[in-house]
Amino acid sequence: MSGPQCCENPPALDSSCGGVGHEEEIGGLKCYVTGPPHSKLAVLLLSDIFGYEAPKLRKLADKVSASGFYVVVPDFFYGDPYAPENAERPLPVWLKDHGPDKGFEDAKPVIQALKSKGISSIGAAGFCWGAKLVVELGKYAYIQAAVLLHPSFVSLEDVQAVKVPISILGAEVDIMSPPELVRKFEEALNAKPEVFSLSCRGAGKIIAKYPDRCFMYQEQSVMASIGTQYDRLIAL
Predict the structure, then answer these.
(1) What is the pLDDT of residues 68-114, one digit of tens each?
(2) Cα distance between residue 179 and residue 157, in whole Å
(3) In sequence order, which ranges of 17-155 are alpha helices (DSSP H)?
(4) How far is CA 11 from CA 2, 81, 83, 213, in A?
(5) What radius of gyration do the chain's Cα atoms show?
(6) What is the distance between the alpha carbons of residues 186 and 115, in angstroms, rounded to a whole number?
(7) Burial letters for 58-74: b for 16+ Cβ neighbours within 10 Å, e otherwise?
(8) pLDDT tens profile 143-186
(9) Which of 11, 101, 125, 188 could covalently link to 54 via disulfide, CB atoms 3.0 to 4.6 Å apart?
(10) Residue 213: per-residue pLDDT
(11) Cα–Cα dist 147/123, whole Å
(12) What's the rounded Cα separation, in Å, for the pair 158 and 210?
């Protein structure tokens, strides 16, 4: 989330730390890429406000790729992730330069580039800031499956407009997507069972705090959701 629980203890960013993949430019963005390059199935992992260099995000990408997916983690911030120690540039100011609306536009060339490589189906999982971007992509079916983890800036109207299978994984303590809002997401999606396949959680014992430390939860959740949603990619 882009709230205090997320910003209190940011991850140590280090692009050289861990990861079996590599960096390359895709669709005009620098990306961390991992997995079989000739796979027809791709997964976009969209970061929180701390960006694509978070070591455990890259570790998660490697784990997802082990299931046969070509995994891409784009740098939507152009080397400028949020730095909470910078008092002269608080989060509202930083977001003026890095809003999800801009990320949505930047994602389109990435998706087009993947399709030009022969990718036939694309799923996306987004954390915090990245979840809003996933929702926008899902509204217009730029992707074929979606996973949101402790989403920020996502409204009920956003969720109602999504046109692809979606899993939403909330947290017990999250001012941006509290459990009562996640339950509304679930109710809205349950009203459209012919369209959505949903795994919606928001009242568990997971606290979305300390983004680097809570990746065990995120890893298990993403892998479970990908197992549910991205099986659909194989069938497409």
Answers:
(1) 999 999 999 999 999 999 999 999 999 999 999 999 999 999 999 99
(2) 17
(3) 55-65, 91-97, 100-116, 129-139
(4) 14, 11, 10, 8
(5) 16
(6) 31
(7) bbbbbebbeeebbbbbb
(8) 999 989 889 999 999 999 999 888 888 877 788 888 889 889 98
(9) 11
(10) 37
(11) 8
(12) 26
SS (H, E, C) 125-167: EEECHHHHHHHHHHHCCCCCEEEEECCCCCCHHHHHHCCCCEE
Residue 128, both tokens: 């915090």
- Taking the CB of residue 138, how many other CB atoms lie within 10 A of it? 25
Displacement of CA 7 from its chain's centroid (Å)? 17
Q: What does the pLDDT look like over 118-151, one tens digit per residue?
A: 999 999 999 999 999 999 999 999 999 998 988 9
Q: Tell me which residue of 146, 193, 152 sits closest to 171, measured CA to CA.
A: 152
SS (HEC) of 169-215 = ECCCECCCCCHHHHHHHHHHHHCCCCCCCCCEECCCCCECCCCCCCH
